[in-house]
Amino acid sequence: MRTIKSKGGINGVRLWFTLDEIEATMGGLRVRSGQDQLRRGGVDVERVLKSEFGIEADYQDLGDGVLGATHFAESGELAVVISAQLGEEAEVDTVAWRRLRSTLAHECGHCALHRTLFQMNRDQTTMFESVDAIDKHLCRSADICPEMEHSGAHEFSKSWTEYQANQAMSQLLLPREWVLEFMEQLEGYDSHNGLGTIIAVKGVNYVIERVAEAFDVSKQMVHYRLSSLGLSSSTRLLQDND
Ligand SMILES: [Zn+2]
After folding, report:
1. Is the same domain home to 122 and 70?
2. 40-99 pLDDT, tens per residue?
3. Mean local confidence (pLDDT), 172-187
4. Which long-range contacts (CB under 8 A, 24 or more apart) does 233-238 make?
5. Distance 64 CA to ligand 1 centre (A)
6. Taking CA 217 as the corner, what is the angle to CA 215 and CA 219, rounded to the nearest 5 degrees?
7. pTM for this one?
8. Distance between Cα 164 and ligand 1 center (Å)
9. Distance, CA 125 to ligand 1 centroid (Å)?
10. Which domain holds residue 235?
């Protein structure tokens, strides 16, 4: 991680992470939460939040278009808030449930990567008593999307924190080693030809749907993550899917 003084930063500072650093950070959180083996149903993000930060998500009305928020206090204390409406929809709808998981993972990314930006005065014991001591980071639905993973332009825009949180989200929900292990277990996987054989026989949507089901994430997120993982057939995978 590099720290850069920037007018576009938070408290005059912006952080720079390599993709490997974000992956290592989120993998560390997952493993420390006791999730070191490929797990049917994917990563339990709430368990990560609890084990790493000692917090549980709170559900509140956040207003139109806002799915989640992370509150940072100068003391380093954190709070994650999720849209109550999203929480309700997630109980009855798979798409909303997966959006909820994405939002939790995105906020978890903010907690892991951006807490230091707000810890300007660690000696201060103020937690949530003073509104002034809290910086609220709202995440709108348009911000929480796997496509940003591929848009280098976002690295330099004012939404660099969103870009990094989206990286953290997909790397937490679709860990590289878990995805590769799962792929190798798919019927028809060929270690020399990667996913090519399965795609030729069963079609690209078959692969994307199997991964989405196994990891309980959206197909869109799988689509982008498979490409970013640099699987041998990723180019073809994307072309076939577009
Ligand atoms: Zn965000």
Report:
1. yes
2. 899 999 999 999 999 999 999 998 889 999 998 877 889 999 999 999 999 999 999 999
3. 92
4. 233/193, 233/194, 233/195, 233/196, 233/199, 236/196, 236/199, 236/204, 237/195, 237/199, 237/204, 237/207
5. 15
6. 110
7. 0.85
8. 9
9. 26
10. 176-241
Same-domain pairing of 161 and 87: yes
Domain boundary among the residues 152, 173, 194 is at: 173
What residue type is assigned to position 173 of the chain?
L
Residues 154 and 106 in one domain: yes
pLDDT band at 27 (very low <50, low <70, confident <90, very high): very high
Between the CA of 15 and the centroid of ligand 1 the distance, in Å, is 15
What's the domain count of the chain? Answer: 2
- Whether 63 and 142 map to the same domain: the answer is yes
pLDDT digits (tens, 9 = 90+) for 153-175: 444 445 888 999 999 999 999 99
